[in-house]
Amino acid sequence: MTQTIGSPRNYEDLKRSNTLNKVRKKPPQLSKLKTSPKPNLLITTEAVDQDSIQALSKYARVFSSAGLDEASLARLLPSVDGLLVFFWPSFLSPENLSRMSHLRFIQSILAGVNHIPFAQLTKKVRVCSNAGAYSDEVAEYAWSLLLSAAKRVVDFHNAVKSEQWTLRRMLGGKEVTILGDKTLGILGYGGIGSAVARIGKGFSMKIYAFSRKPVREKGVRSFQGDKGLLTVLAESDAVIASLPLTKFTDKIIGADKLATMKKDAILVNIARGELVDETALYEHLKSNPDFRYATDVWWYREGKESLKTTHPFFEVPNFIGTPHVSGPSGLATGKPVKFAVENVIRFLRGLKPRNIVNPAEYLATDRQEY
Amino acid sequence: MTQTIGSPRNYEDLKRSNTLNKVRKKPPQLSKLKTSPKPNLLITTEAVDQDSIQALSKYARVFSSAGLDEASLARLLPSVDGLLVFFWPSFLSPENLSRMSHLRFIQSILAGVNHIPFAQLTKKVRVCSNAGAYSDEVAEYAWSLLLSAAKRVVDFHNAVKSEQWTLRRMLGGKEVTILGDKTLGILGYGGIGSAVARIGKGFSMKIYAFSRKPVREKGVRSFQGDKGLLTVLAESDAVIASLPLTKFTDKIIGADKLATMKKDAILVNIARGELVDETALYEHLKSNPDFRYATDVWWYREGKESLKTTHPFFEVPNFIGTPHVSGPSGLATGKPVKFAVENVIRFLRGLKPRNIVNPAEYLATDRQEY
């Protein structure tokens, strides 16, 4: 009943597996479709391992888009109850999606769900993010960016390499930021935010959490609303953004917010590039050389996350940028797939799945990322 | 009785204040020398602030070498009981040192004491390191190196900058090391080592401590002796070296030890370059591309720590090097001076000072560093 699904080698493979161009497997036994009492689950990614597929098969008839030709897919779509996607597959065009009259559930393997075409979904479809699945790995990565910026590791390494720094050169005190006893602001206190905080306590930092719901946790001061955000930004020595990208958080850090931050603060973006206004940030970095921005996530160009920026950030010494490797480093552990599969099983068993998102909060754009 | 001592601007200033070339202040009232019941303390660095000098003056007659000409110094030396040095001053040549018949105590503001000429000291001289004074700051720096190496931040930043990496490129799993639930080996469990461990617990790492004395601490496995060192090296995913450089630890990590480590382990050196055999390390990095070495400390050339290496480490992608800024970043907090001064006061009050080192463990070389 299931298709053999190989391990993906790279994101391009994963992407190909999201299309129908490469049908490599035999078609499913569609004849059984009508007689089975089990719901139908369509998996649109090769990232799901065989053990997981076996586990899912106890509760559903499992189909892989990689095993279906166009005609089989057309027959299957109206009977699909659930979708397990890595990111939104291109073959699920608005037209194909409109045929999925039975669709009730979508599970994303990506942590964020802003790749899902919410505007085209009916109200009965529950969409679940994979929040929490990457938390520890992404939190570690956030700390690598924060410490690289705080200790100027990239700068110093490149300076020694190019013989532009000498031993015994006295530090002015601005080059290296000491984190102990300083304040760490965490924007968004979900799985990543709370893992970031746990590590921050090891560094003896005071933790300020900005979140929708109050945080009741020892050693964490909780802030809500616009005023709370301004307080966290103004009082923090380092800020880590781990917010989902929604219509409320889009460009939430603009020129006005940057202006409230300490002149020598460090801002780390581990969530989504678009949380920060690109031009405002560039101007801020240029006019505040002690301020530092370190990011693993990038702005959109033509609806897609892109390493090509409007401004030459790499010419600014107080900028550190890495090519969105925090999530993929978590994916390599296998945990995010297991996490997503467990949630699909929850849905299939008639239980309430975790991480149901509110569609009203998500932008109906074609922004793509992972 | 005290000299006005300005704040140092850079290490070169500190170094000049260690010589007699620049005597800028009036000579001390040497006539009072014989009548005072207080011991005489000579400070050979301008790093000590006025408040500290005031505090010391309650218990000693305080002299600054920056305020003494050659003749005054010659008269003072035989009556000096204690020395507070940043690093060993060049004016205290073997000849001048031999005149210091009253010398009983030397306090270093540097954490390590391998700059002290132990071979030329009589047995009655107690030498105190400043271990612990920089612990939190150096531990933070060690973590910045470990995370930069684990997450390949320098590599990734430079790759995006030079357009050599693309988004959605799948990670092989070797590029980024996940630290959670992995084993962190800490070589030397003094102030720095235990601060490194505290942070490591926040990362949910298992802590293996290699130290002279057994460590009894929750969440820490303690190892001693040669066999213990081999176990720590063999079983750790990341190792942070925070050992003092003594005749026992000189090149303690050679080819044999490197060979016992995991092929994809990370070795961080936050202590002294000479703990690691330079050529053996270079060969190891070349033949084990997944192994990573990140250091803030460098090997000696002609007795002095130098950024010039015998091998071209910066051409090896699995090497990260910063120009010995971890200690100076701690110095910028003012804490190390306060720490050293408190210990001098302990000595002056007739109490047992902390951090008395065993001269037999130290090499009688002219190696200089900070």
Short summary:
The structure is a homodimer of 370-residue chains. Chain A has 370 residues and is α/β, with parallel strands linked by helices. In chain A, 30% of the residues lie in helices and 15% in strands.
Give the secondary structure arrangement, pairings included.
The structure is a homodimer of 370-residue chains.
Chain A: H1 11-16, E1 40-43, H2 50-57, E2 61-64, H3 70-76, E3 80-85, H4 94-98, E4 105-108, E5 126-128, H5 135-150, H6 153-161, E6 183-187, H7 191-202, E7 206-210, E8 220-223, H8 225-235, E9 238-241, H9 255-260, E10 266-269, H10 278-287, E11 292-295, E12 300-301, E13 304-305, E14 319-321, H11 326-331, H12 335-348
Parallel strand pairs in A: 1-2, 1-3, 3-4, 4-5, 6-7, 6-9, 7-8, 9-10, 10-11, 11-14
Antiparallel strand pairs in A: 12-13
Helix pairs in contact in A: 2-12, 5-7
